[in-house]
Amino acid sequence: MKNIVEIENVSFRYKGSDKGLIKNVSLKVKEGETLLLCGASGSGKTTLIRLINGLIPHYYSGELEGTVKVAGRDIKGTPLYELAGIVGTVFQNPRSQFFSVDTDGEIVFGPENIGLEPSEIKRRADLVTKDMNLKKLLGRSLFELSGGEKQKIACASVSALLPDIILLDEPSSNLDWSAIEELRTAIKKWKKQGKTIVISEHRLWYLRDLIDNVYYMENGDIQGRWTGEEFFRFTDEKVKVLKLRPVRVEEKYMAKSGEMSKSEKVRMILDADKDSILLKDFYFTYARRSYLFRKKKPTQADADILSLNIPKLEIPKGVVVGVTGKNGTGKSTFLRCICGLENECPGIIVEGGKLYKGKRRIGLSYMVMQDVNHQLFTDSVEAEVLLSMKNEDKKRCDEILDSLGLLEYKDKHPMALSGGQKQRVAIASAIAADAKILLFDEPTSGLDYSHMVKVSELLRNLADDGRTVLVSTHDPELIDLCCDYVLSIKNGRVYSLEKCSRMENVKIAL
Q1: CA geometry: angle 63, 67, 70, nearest 5 deg
Q2: Pairing of strands 196-200, 34-38
Q3: By the 8 A CB rule, do 171 and 92 touch?
Q4: Which of 54, 144, 188, 298 has its CA 20 to 30 A from that of 276?
C-alpha cells in the first residue's frame, strides 16, 4: 500500500511562541492504516493533527520547515477547501465544529458546503444515518444532546464527506463508557471501509485490537514506535513510566457498569464513624411548565418530567466522592443544584446542624467548572481570590495562594495562566469563600496521567483539610487514585453510594 500522509523533517513553532512545538519530525501513514498518537499533554500530538488537516499553516500561523504531503498534495500550496473532501477531523469538543443548530443540518453541512448535488447530499445523509444508527437523533436540536450524542453527530458530519483520511483529536475525553463503545464501533466501521485513521488520545483501553501502529511523542519529537500488538502488551507500570494512562484500569470498572432495573433498591454503604451532610428534596426539571401567577418549584409529584429526582441522600463529611453515570444522566445538574446555580431546585442541605436552602446554599458550596474560563472575572489572581472573601484579607489571600503554589502569580492575569493553574485559582477562590462543599465537574477531562495524578493529590488534600469534595468524572483512574466513595446516578436518580478501595501510597515515576 502506498503512503497517503508523508511528513518529512518537519519543525513548527507557533507565532509568538519562544519554543518549538515540533522538532524535525518524520512520519509516514499508509492507506487504510489506523495509527495512534500518544504522549503527555503538550508533546505535539495536536500539532501533528493540524499539520495533516491543513489548519497549519492556513489557520495557525508560525514558522514551518520541512514538507507535509497529504494524498500527494503539499499542504503549503493546497487551500483548506480542497482538503475538506480528503481529510475529516473530529475534535475533542464537538461543539467547536458545529455550524448548524439541528442534527439534520449538521450532517449535511459538509456536502452542501462543497457544492454537491441535492440528490447526492440526500444519498450520503441516508447512508451515514443507516451506517451509524442515527435515526433516533434526527430532527433534534444540537443544544439538547448529551456529550456522547454530540460526538456521534460530529462523526456523522465528517463521514458524510466520505473522506479518505479521518483524524480524531482526543475524541473520548468527554464521553461515558457506553458512548466510548459507540465511538469504537464507528472506528471499526471506518476501518472496515478502508479509511486511514489517525487518533490522538490519552484513553487507551478502547483502542485495543483497532490500532496498527503507535507513535509515542515527547517534547515535540517521536520517541517511540511500536506495532499496536506490541504496545498493548505493555504492562501498566511501563505505560505509566511513559506518562500515559494505564491500558487495563478502565476495564475493571466496565464490568461493574449496568442498567438499574425498576425493582432494584438503592445501595448505600456509609462509615458509621463519619459525620454526614444531608441533602433533601433535590428535584429539578428542564421541561417548560405552564403557570398562572408564579413559577412553581418541582416536587416528587412531577416525577415524569424530572431531570433530577433525589428525595434524600446522606454523604459523609471530609471525603472525596466520585459522581459517575452516563452522559446526560444528571451528574452536572446535581452539582449545579447543590451550589445553587439552578434556583428552581427546592433542595435543602443540612450541615453541622444548620439548614441551608435557596440562596444560602451558594455560601456553603463552590463549584469548579469543567471550563474554568467561565468563572474567572478579574484582572489578577489576587483580585480573583479577594473577590470571594466576605471581608478582604490580603494576608489570608497570600496564605491560600502559597498553599496552592500560586503566590508567585498573584499579580498575573488569570487568563495568562495554564489550564491547571487556572483550576487552582478557582479552588483558591473556593477556599477563600470558606466553602465546606467543593464540587468539580470533569476536572481531568483530556488530561494525561501525570496531570491526573496532580489533580487527585489536590482533591485528596482538600478532603484531608475537612472539606467534602464531590467530583463528577468518567475517569476510573481518578477514582482509583483519590475517591473514598462512588455515587452512581442513573436517569437523575441515585443508584448507589458505595465505599471504594483507593490505591494507597501511589508512587509513580513521572
Answers
A1: 120
A2: parallel
A3: yes
A4: 298
The pLDDT tens digits of the residues spanning 466-508 come to: 999 999 998 888 898 899 999 999 989 998 898 886 544 333 3
CA distances (Å), 278 to each of 320, 354, 376, in order?
A: 16, 10, 30
Average pLDDT for 95-102: 85
Q: Which amino acid, one-letter code, is at 434?
A: D
Helical ranges in 414-496 per DSSP H: 419-432, 449-464, 476-482
Mean pLDDT check: name the lowest of 43-47, 49-53, 156-160, 170-174.
Answer: 170-174
Q: Is the pLDDT of residue 68 over 90?
A: yes
Residue 200: which H helix or E strand, with range? Answer: strand 196-200
Query: What is the reported pTM?
Result: 0.77
Taking the CA of residue 161 as centre, how many other CA atoms within 13 Å lie in the half-sphere pointing to its CB? 25
Domain borders along the chain are 101-162, 267-499
Indicate the helix (H) or strand (E) that contains 334. helix 331-338
Q: Please check the confidence at residue 18 and state whether its pLDDT lies above 80.
A: no
Residue by residue, DSSP assigns 13-82 as: EETT-SS-SEEEEEEEEETT-EEEEE-STTSSHHHHHHHHHTHHHHTS-EEEEEEEEETTEEGGGS-HHH
Euclidean distance between CA atoms 44 and 41, whole angstroms? 8
CATH fold, domain 267-499, is Rossmann fold (3.40.50)
| Cβ atoms of residues 153 and 137 within 8 Å | yes
Cα angle, residue 33 at apex, residues 31 and 38 outer, rounded to 5°:
135
Cβ 448 vs Cβ 243: under 8 Å: yes
Q: Where are the alpha helices (DSSP H) in 73-202?
A: 80-83, 103-113, 118-131, 147-159, 177-192
- Write the CB contacts of 229 (distance below 8 Å, at least 6 apart in sequence): none
CB 210 within 8 A of CB 184: yes
Q: What pLDDT does residue 291 have? A: 58
